[in-house]
């Protein structure tokens, strides 16, 4: 039995023993509150810890679930089990609308936006007469199942923690999938994810909705456990407390949710008793302690408490069992000599600065085209114009006969253009295999539901098979299970190339792939580029290492101050006085 299955068995057994043994009812009640809050914090782990989107409004979504169920059971006489689905549906609708508006923001604007709508929903709950204003709704119906009263004790405890463990299992399944890798890519910024074909706004809204749905289930449990609701447990203050729990437990770890909630609830309970005795007067002094603890956690344990546990747990290598997996579909490759890319008078202005000035060049199938020039010549900007990272001021980019000038990065990736970056972009805490499999995102189609229910395993096997093929293609087949963050610069560059190849591109754009490499690593890179060319792949190469450029390219375009200086074969470029003048400042 694997360590993971043993851990699950031990956890379920421990919870079963707690329910059966004569544990004091006070502790059962505490564990019920911990389980209810864990569902809400689990959503924050996905949204903030994994997706990198900070939200102070989680408590408001808990409130929507709680108030929906309380109102409909008290005033409409509906079954609490029906109101669960109604509450999740209403919460999902609110999350989609709010996410569509706020998730386009970045930086400090997003947390401020979540703070704003969290306050708005709190005051809405407190001022609506139908919801009882600040007195709330009383005499909420308890949960029953086939006439059996679930109560507020051990039976409720079993149901609550079954939901918590189910949510945790689903979350672990989700993150170990094609969709999960897309979610984890969000923390690196949108540029790399979009170049892999990921619709980052869609993914952000997706995890926002999933986080809100978990919060809604938490609110439903709270309403029928407490048998009353009022706005106080759903204020922004509580939203900040949920975020504190996630950070303390380990905001990047799924099990950090339960860890953080448990520690916070137990400490709050003990501090409310101990602090008045020490200080000699009553008050909410535990809030001060939590503030100090949060600062210390951010300073000395930014990854939370679970990170220390995670380091001690065994991490078995992923079993290579995809040899017989089905091959992924492949796109039609251009015929030899076919014009793959044509840049026509492409121009980019930043205010009064002309970064790229009416550049023209083309790339044929099976050709390596070099794009060189001094620093500031506009090479990387040209790359970004071709791949849709930047919009053209004027001009056109034609790829395989189609005008792609106005397309977004993800749509250009769909058509068969893949790229690497001047500064390596990868997910350091994912394995090499998982990073490279991210490049095949467009070649799969299973969604979040399939991932959580484990219905995507056949597709996952195919994606990993493709990732391994591309890693072996670039000479990194030995590093499948190595954490990407542990790699030296050379292997990181090769990882990026393998990831780009996973998209089955017709054109590969390499932005300074030899930067930071040692001599032998550069020679290995040159061998990889020659091999790719021999396989018929077209490559556009930006590089400062002239030895490498002259070794592998068929033709070269030289840029200077955003303009095309000259185009020719490597021999013609080396013999050009204009090129020497551009690099050395003199023709002699």
Largest sheet: 6 strands, mixed
Arithmetic mean of pLDDT: 88
Helix content: 40-55%
Quaternary: single chain
Beta strands, count = 12
Strand percentage lies at 5-15%
Structural class: alpha/beta
- Uncertain segments: none
Radius of gyration: 28 Å
Number of helices: 23
Your description of this structure?
The structure is a single chain. This protein has 588 residues and is of the alpha/beta class. The chain contains 23 helices and twelve strands. It has a six-stranded mixed sheet, with helices on both faces. The termini are far apart.
Summary?
This protein is of the alpha/beta class and 588 residues long.
Q: Features of this protein?
A:
single chain; 588 residues; alpha/beta; six-stranded mixed beta sheet; four-stranded antiparallel beta sheet; 55% helix; elongated
